[in-house]
């Protein structure tokens, strides 16, 4: 089952928002809610493993669908993107709004956070304006109890006019009442009287003019009052989706044009221009949410979140916030570096044992040496190298990153750095995408979807490569260990490596600020937009689910993309290392050609060409350097770092070469997996090219400046 271009009801909107039902008796249920309210936990526990993920057609936004059977009915649950409002500003919010408005779900579950119910009711009220088939799920009741928040669910249900159910989604049994409420809602013949939001008089007067006109149109089966408000507000993306749903331009209808003109005149006479109208509508929604909660939610206004505020005073202080942030970053890197060594070695031994078995098979069938070289020493060896180097660090880093996210710490990092991004005319949400980039830049690029402004999203995409991914960690750590950590043994070695690596990362963050500022004043001019930065309550992480989610949703996803490009790269590298022209291989010819230019950058031709051949995956840069220096026909690994250092020194490496190589590793073109992701996210070859050119130029300038200054001074 998937999203198709027209399955139930009308033509599809947004290239296909309808859910295809296997049988007419299936019921489609949208699961909506603000971010960080446990919406996906509700979805996961209701559907179990009967779910799949994909992309909304025409959008770079992922969706999840699952099945839930209760009594005699099968429910198709659709986990729509988290949104604070149906007044959409981003691709995710547009998809959420359009599915509720035009996807014709049989019911909508709106998940709310019991610890901040009033704020969540903004979305609830907007959803009820569209449909009366709503069940409000007040989740995190256990968290509310810890904060002595008492919620009268019956009072809320009576005021809203729709079912309200309290849950603790982590406890699967607490969802029984939720699915029962959905069942009763869909099988009840009782007339529903949901709450009606009362807007200020000019808006109500304008709605009173246009609403009767819409009601007379037999082909419009959308809530007439809601549609009147949206026509007055005129959100272009919504009107476009509405026209696609109806099959014609609603604003071109003569009767609606006349009614809309009269209604807009009423608003204009009362000074209600576009921005004032929307502000007034939002203010009325907020006031309505406040009035709904005033008699139903009881708590100690002074002490209910005192613990969170005490922690925030430390984590968001300008004096302690940054040291703690850097210390946590170092801790994550130290665990990743030290923890990945052993599993990486085991995985490498297993994969290269398989290489020996493949070699035996080729020999058994008397296959020619060139065939064995291409497929075993080329394709398979590079593939095995990438998997053994990438998988263990990602399997450690992504769960650690997700744990910080689950606890609620990452939004505090965004809060700490927001003002610095604002000075660069960028978005504070970019911090979160940078954090994802530490695991994989491709994942960081996908994470840029959370940034509402297209300009700021492009800034985040172009500069994400200044954050080193785990594919560059082996190169950076190896060089740091060989040339700068030196003879430090025991625990001191990894600690010193971590300190130096953190320093490099801080440099990458500094370069992100510089380049963001430059782009904001040149090709991406603009002022920073406002955005909602939620500081969610601190929560106990769900360690088991975090590990599973990070491994399947991030680690294996990224590894799969890397494998797709690493395999053909292995063939190309082997061919270049084994085809000779004259007395030299193609690899040597290319390295010699690049050598004069590379010397200006503090490196040599072999290093620069290794970065070029490492385009499919940064993990293979060092093995290619070894292969070129040893004139070997395939990628190989030395027994120890000290053997590697001796090889590098014998080929002219100094501490200047080492630093130049690390600078270029930190700042150069994105890998092929990231480039493919950039192209998919931006839908533009132009911005993909800019994302390649900008970090490359900055890396070359940094290397040239460093090499030139050191040559002059030494």
Please explain how this structure is put together.
By secondary structure, the protein is an alpha/beta fold. It has three domains: 185 residues, P-loop containing nucleotide triphosphate hydrolases (Rossmann fold, 3-Layer(aba) Sandwich), CATH 3.40.50.300; 72 residues; 393 residues, no CATH class. Helices cover 62% and strands 8% of the residues. A seven-stranded mixed sheet has the order 4-5-6-3-7-8-10, sandwiched between helices. Strand 7, helix 3 and strand 8 form a beta-alpha-beta unit. Helix 18 crosses helix 28, helix 19 crosses helix 20 and helix 19 crosses helix 25.
Distance between the termini: 67 Å
Mean pLDDT, all residues = 83
| Helix/strand class | alpha/beta
Helical residues, percent: 55-70%
Number of domains: 3
Outline type: elongated
Strand order of the largest sheet: 4-5-6-3-7-8-10
Number of helix segments? Answer: 28
Task: Give a quick rundown of the structure.
62% of the residues lie in helices and 8% in strands. Residues 1-16 and 55-60 have low confidence and may be disordered.
Give the key terms.
714 residues, Rossmann fold, seven-stranded mixed beta sheet, two-stranded antiparallel sheet, 62% helix, disordered N terminus
Helix/strand layout:
Elements: E1 3-4, E2 18-19, E3 27-33, H1 39-47, E4 51-55, E5 62-70, E6 73-79, H2 91-102, E7 107-113, H3 117-130, E8 134-139, H4 141-146, E9 150-151, H5 153-160, E10 164-166, H6 176-187, H7 201-215, H8 224-233, H9 236-246, H10 254-269, H11 274-294, E11 297-298, H12 306-315, H13 321-364, H14 369-407, H15 410-423, H16 430-439, H17 441-447, H18 454-463, H19 473-485, H20 492-520, H21 543-578, E12 580-581, E13 584-585, H22 586-600, H23 605-613, H24 621-629, H25 641-650, H26 655-666, H27 672-682, H28 685-713
Parallel strand pairs: 3-6, 3-7, 7-8, 8-10
Antiparallel strand pairs: 1-2, 4-5, 5-6, 9-11, 12-13
């Amino acid at each position: 089952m998937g999203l198709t271009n027209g399955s139930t009801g009308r033509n599809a909107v947004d290239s296909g928002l309808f859910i295809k039902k296997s049988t007419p008796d299936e019921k489609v249920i949208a699961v909506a809610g603000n971010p960080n309210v446990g919406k996906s936990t509700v979805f996961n526990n209701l559907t179990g493993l009967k779910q799949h993920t994909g992309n909304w057609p025409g959008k770079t936004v992922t969706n999840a669908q699952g099945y839930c059977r209760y009594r005699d009915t099968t429910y198709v649950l659709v986990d729509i993107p988290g949104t604070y409002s149906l007044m959409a500003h981003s691709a995710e919010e547009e998809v959420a709004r359009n599915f509720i408005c035009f996807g014709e779900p049989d019911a909508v579950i709106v998940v709310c956070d019991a610890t901040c119910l009033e704020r969540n009711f903004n979305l609830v009220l907007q959803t009820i304006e569209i449909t009366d088939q709503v069940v409000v799920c007040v989740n995190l009741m256990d968290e509310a109890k810890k904060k002595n928040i008492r919620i009268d669910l019956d009072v809320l249900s009576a005021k809203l006019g729709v079912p309200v159910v309290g849950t603790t989604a982590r406890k699967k049994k607490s969802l029984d009442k939720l699915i029962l409420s959905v069942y009763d809602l869909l099988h009840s013949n009782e007339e529903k009287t949901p709450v009606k939001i009362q807007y200020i008089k000019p808006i109500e007067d304008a709605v009173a003019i246009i609403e009767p006109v819409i009601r007379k149109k037999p082909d419009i089966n959308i809530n007439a009052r809601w549609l009147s408000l949206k026509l007055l507000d005129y959100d272009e993306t919504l009107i476009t989706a509405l026209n696609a749903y109806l099959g014609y331009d609603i604003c071109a209808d003569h009767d609606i044009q006349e009614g809309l003109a009269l209604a807009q005149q009423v608003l204009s006479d009362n000074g209600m221009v576009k921005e004032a109208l929307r502000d007034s509508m939002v203010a009325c929604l907020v006031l309505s949410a406040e009035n709904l909660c005033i008699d139903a939610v009881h708590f100690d206004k002074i002490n209910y979140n005192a613990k969170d505020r005490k922690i925030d005073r430390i984590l968001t202080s300008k004096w302690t916030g940054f040291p703690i942030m850097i210390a946590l970053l170092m801790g994550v890197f130290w665990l990743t570096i030290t923890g990945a060594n052993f599993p990486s070695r085991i995985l490498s031994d297993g994969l290269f044992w398989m290489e020996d078995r493949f070699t035996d098979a080729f020999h058994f069938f008397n296959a020619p040496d060139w065939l064995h070289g291409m497929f075993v020493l080329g394709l398979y060896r590079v593939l095995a190298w990438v998997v053994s180097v990438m998988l263990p660090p990602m399997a450690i880093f992504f769960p650690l990153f997700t744990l910080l996210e689950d606890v609620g710490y990452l939004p505090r990092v965004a809060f700490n750095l927001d003002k610095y991004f604002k000075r660069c005319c960028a978005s504070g949400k970019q911090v979160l995408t940078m954090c994802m980039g530490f695991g994989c830049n491709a994942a960081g690029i996908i994470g840029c979807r959370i940034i509402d402004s297209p300009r700021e999203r492009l800034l985040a995409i172009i500069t994400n490569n200044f954050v080193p991914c785990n594919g560059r960690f082996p190169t950076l750590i190896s060089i740091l260990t060989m040339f700068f950590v030196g003879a430090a043994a025991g625990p001191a070695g990894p600690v010193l490596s971590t300190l130096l690596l953190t320093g490099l990362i801080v440099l990458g963050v500094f370069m992100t600020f510089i380049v963001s500022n430059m782009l904001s004043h040149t090709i991406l001019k603009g002022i920073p937009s406002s955005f909602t930065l939620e500081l969610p309550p601190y929560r106990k992480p769900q360690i088991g689910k975090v590990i599973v989610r990070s491994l399947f949703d991030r680690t294996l996803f990224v590894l799969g993309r890397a494998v797709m490009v690493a395999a053909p790269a292995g063939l190309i590298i082997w061919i270049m290392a084994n085809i000779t022209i004259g007395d030299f291989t193609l690899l040597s010819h290319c390295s010699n050609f690049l050598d004069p230019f590379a010397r200006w950058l503090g490196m040599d031709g072999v290093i620069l060409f290794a970065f070029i051949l490492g385009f499919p995956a940064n993990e293979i840069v060092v093995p290619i350097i070894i292969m070129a220096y040893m004139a070997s026909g395939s990628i190989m690994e030395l027994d120890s770092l000290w053997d590697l250092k001796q090889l590098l020194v014998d080929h002219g490496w100094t501490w200047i070469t080492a630093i130049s190589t690390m600078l270029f590793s930190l700042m150069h073109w994105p890998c092929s997996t990231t480039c493919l992701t950039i192209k998919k996210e931006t839908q533009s070859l132009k911005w993909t090219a800019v994302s390649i050119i900008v970090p490359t130029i900055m890396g070359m300038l940094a290397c040239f400046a460093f090499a030139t200054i050191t040559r002059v001074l030494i």
